[in-house]
Write a sequence for this structure.
């Protein structure tokens, strides 16, 4: 048994889709969440900037004594996972591998689509992870840069004409390839599940990356004997780099719970990266 | 005559609409531009975060020996101008006052609309500036949070169905008020001028805030005898907080010129604010 908390981070609110699944699967675990709401979105930024931000995010989380970190962000998972693993000595899970695993188990016609931010699609990480498992898979990838702004605007419901139009535009070429499985390669996208599912039709399975990462985390903790007592009620603490009140207000929509009492602001830009050892130095 | 450069900054690329106008009006001036592309967009963030970022932006520009600063960003102008003026001893121009001045000179039916980011509209700065000049004006304000993402995506042309649909949604209530003048209260919006003008019709005048700020700057420099030799060819230098190459590539669209040779990256988060004079960061 390991009573240390788990660290989870995302560029903003999207990672809460993974967080929600973790709290269901692992009710006894303490979890510290960081959302970089002061610098969201990451998906249009350069790889260098994404790596720099991700290092600060991890350094902040490591100021807690953690047993594992989940990168609940498609962009960071695709761009910076290898770097972060090399630089840190605790288990770090991204969303790419678990989602690729789920996709190859799901597909029957070996035609798989992946949607994500520009940065994510640019890396080719999902394609590599899927082809490693299923070399003959037919693969189509599509960057969907307007979906994160739409989700952050709360425009996620059926009947929102703009959202429906944007989804149609991005998903039309994916649908045209006859895929039976689509990886929602950004943790924001499950909020758009209804609109996307309506467009893609009932024969296409949508893979929720946050959900799959939560399953992978549970498996990892079990395998390494790192689980906390499942009978206890885990504590959750939330940090955001912009206003904590704004974070809590939007988080309520994602989590269906009021978290204002356990949300704080953190000045992420002040988190120092020690480029020798990558240790956190507080100011 | 004053040979010192002018500093200009924006959350990202939008301020280049002002920059372009300045280079036309003031060809002899040296100008240093900073675009905070590593943290764009500002318009959805809290006032505290906008002020914090703006202080760093100004502190960076002041590492040059400037004669004036132009805040080529509606969000920062509306949120942080007073604070920045109090804390700095050089002339600082925002986009709100020049645009309000132009709007009251333009309107014939005293019905004025203002569109901007959420943060800008929340401040009421344009309304206050217009009503100070024209207390009886009928005023309608509208936040347009998806317009900056659309512009940053380059989706600015007539015939882009998503852009046209979003513009229609945001501008319908403005049009319904029978305005004859609309302030484009964000320096990104002039890129959408064609789509907006098509929707609003030819009887409505659109005020370009960046353009008006450039006129106000020229007037200020003239009044205070701060102009450089108008016969010389001014030097321009560009800084961005994300990749300089990405900045230069997009800037070419705004400026119609290749600026790659004079664009650099700056690590804006490392810029220190003198905390003796005022409190920077709460917590």
């Amino acid at each position: 048994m390991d009573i240390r908390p788990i660290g989870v981070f995302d560029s903003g609110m999207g990672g809460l889709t993974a967080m929600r699944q973790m709290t269901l699967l692992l009710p006894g675990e303490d979890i510290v969440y960081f959302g970089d709401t002061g610098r969201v979105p990451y998906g249009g930024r350069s790889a260098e900037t994404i790596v720099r931000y991700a290092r600060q995010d991890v350094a902040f989380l490591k100021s807690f004594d953690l047993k594992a970190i989940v990168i609940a962000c498609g962009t960071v998972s695709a761009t910076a996972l290898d770097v972060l693993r090399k630089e840190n000595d605790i288990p770090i899970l991204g969303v790419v591998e678990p989602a690729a695993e789920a996709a190859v188990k799901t597909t029957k016609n070996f035609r798989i689509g992946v949607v994500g931010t520009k940065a994510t699609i640019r890396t080719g990480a999902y394609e590599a992870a899927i082809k490693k498992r299923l070399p003959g898979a037919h693969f189509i990838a599509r960057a969907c840069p307007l979906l994160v702004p739409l989700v952050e605007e709360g425009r996620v419901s059926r009947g929102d004409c703009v959202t429906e139009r944007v989804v149609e535009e991005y998903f039309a070429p994916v649908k045209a390839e006859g895929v039976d499985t689509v990886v929602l390669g950004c943790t924001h996208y499950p909020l758009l599940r209804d609109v996307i599912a309506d467009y893609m039709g009932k024969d296409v399975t949508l893979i929720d990356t946050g959900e799959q990462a939560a399953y992978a985390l549970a498996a990892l903790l079990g395998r390494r004997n790192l689980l906390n007592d499942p009978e206890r009620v885990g504590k959750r603490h939330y940090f955001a780099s912009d206003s904590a009140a704004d974070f809590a207000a939007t988080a309520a929509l994602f989590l269906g719970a009021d978290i204002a009492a356990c949300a704080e602001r953190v000045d992420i830009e002040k988190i120092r990266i020690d480029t020798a050892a990558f240790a956190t130095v507080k100011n």
User: Anything to note?
Assistant: Strands of chain B lie at 6-10, 31-35, 68-71, 92-93, 111-116, 138-143, 181-184, 205-208, 236-240, 263-265. The longest strand of chain B covers residues 111-116.
